Amino acid sequence: MLPLLLSAALANPPAALSTSAFADGGPIPKPYTCQGGDRVPPLTWSGLPTGAKSVALIIEDPDAPDPAKPQRVWVHWVLYDLPVDAGIPDGGPLPSGAQAGQNDWKKQTYGGPCPPIGRHRYFHRLFALDVPPGTLKFAAPPTAAELRVAMGGHVLGEATLLGTYQKE
Fold first, then answer.
1. pLDDT by residue (tens digit) across 118-165?
2. Most buried of 106, 120, 125, 130 (most Cβ within 10 A)?
3. Which of 25, 56, 47 is nearest to 161 (CA)?
4. Measured between alpha carbons, how far is 113 from 165 in angstroms, rounded to an integer?
């Protein structure tokens, strides 16, 4: 039984999310933060599960407002309808057809790390979905919570990229 499980795992490796801007678990450079202009970081994904037809991305900080006493998860970016064969170039723009949801600043744009105190963690979560772009419908730009509900039953795989930031 073990060889069969191992063989299946090797045949369909987990999805990967990466950036050329920082190492997984490392500090996010200033240009991609509120102290440097909130430039969109370059993101690429690979190894999506067979059957993936679109991708969604949520970037969030679980350490808000103070990592010593976190009180909420702060959402920095919500994207969906991303093509499976695209990425996001340094500074943008988004791939054709990509849709932006609403972050916790009530905006449909990338909001870079801007912690009020301490070093925060920023989880970039990629979701490989079994539905093509244009399938998930919303009356208004969705929040991260609304997107997660709509993705229910459609997530084939996930990948996470972690960055950290503390204001200078």
1. 999 999 999 999 999 999 999 999 999 999 999 999 999 999 999 999
2. 120
3. 25
4. 7
Gap between the Cα atoms of 78 and 123, Å rounded: 12
* C-alpha dihedral (79, 141, 151, 17), degrees to nearest 10: 10
Question: Rounded to 5 degrees, what are φ and ψ at 9?
Answer: -65, -40
Residue 87's closest CA among 142, 23, 159, 24? 159
C-beta of residue 123 within 8 angstroms of C-beta of residue 59: yes
Coil/strand/helix, residue 55:
strand
The token pair at 84 is 């499976």
Place of tokens 């067979």: 50
Q: What is the pLDDT of residues 3-16, one digit of tens each?
A: 333 333 444 556 89
CB hemisphere CA count around 111 (13 angstroms):
18
Grouping H, G, I as helix, E, B as strand and the rest as coil, residue 16 is strand
